[in-house]
Amino acid sequence: MEWTALIATAVGAAIGVGSTLVTDRATWRRGTREQDREALRTAAARFLEALTEARDTISDASGSAHLPPDERAQLARAAFTAHSLYSKQYQLELLAPSEVAESARDATHQLLRYRDAVAAGHLRDAPECAGARRAFREARQRLMAAMRSSLAR
Predict the structure, then answer these.
(1) In this predicted model, what pLDDT tens digit does every residue of 117-151 receive, in sequence order?
(2) What integer is the mean pLDDT of 70-95?
């Protein structure tokens, strides 16, 4: 038996096994990245949903002139807990890049400012509410842009 044939067979087998391992590793990485992206997409959608629902609740409270101020304040304050906003924000922050996490914190902070304006007794058309709503919308737009950018990568 020739040694060169045996060596060539061994080298060919090593190359075949090596290339299979490299291909499997690349496929595994791709799958993991897709799972991570899907988890981030889900967390982002859940947070945006909670953010929107809390905003709607606060907005409804700010437009309820027929309710006494203390009831409007109570409705506005309950918005965050009723929609589990903080827990969904924390879930997003665990998965998201720092830019998205920072934007999520800012959007939550701006919504808190809106809630506080309503809890202080201001109605929807008051300058305090209008300014807080505008700041929230801008923060939400920055958040959504950061999310889109992160998910596109």
Answers:
(1) 999 999 999 999 999 999 999 999 999 999 999 99
(2) 94
Residue 57 lies in a domain: yes
Q: Which residue has the tokens 């907005």?
A: 59
Average pLDDT taken over every residue of the chain: 89
Burial readout 25-58 (b: 16 or more C-beta within 10 A, e: otherwise): eeeeeeeeeeeeeeebeebbebbbebbeebbebb
Closest by alpha carbon to 85, among 109, 117, 64, 102?
109
In a domain, 92, yes or no: yes
Q: Which two tokens stand for residue 38?
A: 């899907």
Domain of residue 103 covers: 39-152
